[in-house]
Every structure is written in structure tokens, then in C-alpha cells.
Amino acid sequence: MTAAPPPVEHRVLPVAVPAPDARSLARRVVRPVLRAWLRLRVEDEHHVPAAGPVIVASTHASHADSMALGSALVRPVFFLGDLRLTRWPVLGPWLPRLGMVPVRRGDRDRDALDQLVQLLAEGHVVVVYPEGSRSRDGRVHRPRSGVARLAAATGVPVVPASVVGTHAVWPTGARPRVRGGPVSIRFGPPLAAPAPTPIARRRFSEALHTALVELSGAGRADGFAPVGGGDE
């Protein structure tokens, strides 16, 4: 007897729409709305190349981080996001058009990694959160292994980024603030992909951790962030 396939709720959903075009109606309408809601200020975006695959590795304090990063750059980005975010009033249904790849909570890391590898192979910008979850104490936690493995597997450079202010706009475990609030994003110089060895990946993660702490001006936490931002 053959084994039954895993249930759908344990799979990353496929990309539902083509890569969001920089001149698409969705981006021309929603991006300005998000930038206004977040009162967004962006620094050193020139570190993100104008073409070709790149991983943007960002600090993470709120669901609003992906919205901020998705609207910060002229170039479209892809990011994994909880499927439930698409049910958020007004902007939720538009998120896939801004590059969100809907994921059901609890999906396997392997499936998520394969999805990101595919997007990078197609030349896209992919946003990842090295901490693996939202920080509840404002510090930058130790990166998990995913981003180093992704960079090593693809050879794609990694641009560190800090997002500051989103926790006040959309706190963990609470509803987003209707009036939004000031958010700033700062990009750092790209880091070369590590060699596909445990030692190289570990050194890469340490360098990325340091870069994120310096960009954000936040405290450094040598432990991992709690799963689910601590609200599971």
C-alpha cells in the first residue's frame, strides 16, 4: 500500500500570480498607500541591485515588515507570508499582487526553501527573516541556518536590512494600527554567499548577525527568537 500524500495544510502554496511587475496597477495603487500608512523612510536602497537574483535578509519585529520591504523598493520582491494575512481588510487581498507567497502556518522548512530557490533561479528579489520569527524584545536574535543554507545553495548575494518602527504599527498579537506610524528601512552592503560547508555557513551567519545589529542600532541577542514571535 502506498503512503498517503501529506495534507495540503503542510505544504507551501504555489505562487498564485506572476511576478509583480514594477509598473503593474496593483503596485502603482497599493505601494503608495503602504508607504503613506508607514510614513516610510528608506536609506541606502542602492545596495539592492537593479537586476538579477538577490536575497534581502531583514530584521523582523512585525507582520508589517514584509509590507514595508515590499513597498520600499521600486523593484518587486517576493516574501513568504502567513495565508491568514490575505484576509486582512482592505490590503490583505492585494498582498499576493505585491509578491507575497502565501504559506499555511506550520509548513515544512524544506518546502519553503525549495520555493525560494525557484524564485531566485528566476532572477527575483526574495526577502527572508534570518531570525526565523518576530523579535519581542527589540533585540536582533541569532540567525537560524535557513538564510545561510539558501545563499550557499544558490550562490546569490545577501543584502542585510533593518526595519525599525513596525512593531508600533502592528504589534505582535494585536491588530494593526489604522493610522499607521513612522517606519524606517536601512540596507547594508551585500554579503557574498558562503561556501556550502557547515563552517562557512556558520561564519556567514555570524557576519550577518553583526551587520543586522549595526544597521538597526538594536541590542544583540545570542539566543534564537521564540517560534511564532512568542504568540503561539
Describe this structure in words.
The chain has 232 residues and is of the alpha/beta class. The chain has one domain: Glycerol-3-phosphate (1)-acyltransferase. It has helices at residues 25-38, 64-72, 109-121, 146-154, 166-169, 198-216; strands at residues 40-43, 54-58, 77-82, 100-103, 125-128, 140-141, 158-164, 183-187, 220-221. The strands form two sheets. A seven-stranded mixed beta sheet has the order 1-8-7-2-5-3-4, sandwiched between helices. The chain has a two-stranded parallel ribbon with strand order 6-9. The longest helix is centred in the last third of the chain and has 19 residues, at 198-216. It starts with 24 loop residues before the first helix and ends in an 11-residue tail after the last strand. Mean pLDDT is 84; it is low at 1-18.
Summarize the structure in short.
This protein has 232 residues and is of the alpha/beta class. The protein is built from six helices and nine strands.
pLDDT averaged over residues: 84
| Total helical segments | 6
Secondary-structure element series: HEEHEEHEEHEHEHE
The CATH class: Alpha Beta
Helix content: 25-40%
| Domains (count) | 1
- From the helix content, strand content and strand pairing, which structural class follows? alpha/beta
CATH architecture title: 3-Layer(aba) Sandwich
The major beta sheet can be summarized as: 7 strands, mixed
Number of E strands:
9
Gyration radius over CA: 17 Å
* Shape type: globular
Strand order of the largest sheet: 1-8-7-2-5-3-4
Q: What is the name of the CATH topology? A: Glycerol-3-phosphate (1)-acyltransferase
The CATH homologous superfamily is termed Glycerol-3-phosphate (1)-acyltransferase
- Oligomer, anyone? single chain
Uncertain spans, ≥5 residues at pLDDT below 50? 1-18
Strand content range: 15-25%
Intertermini distance? 36 Å
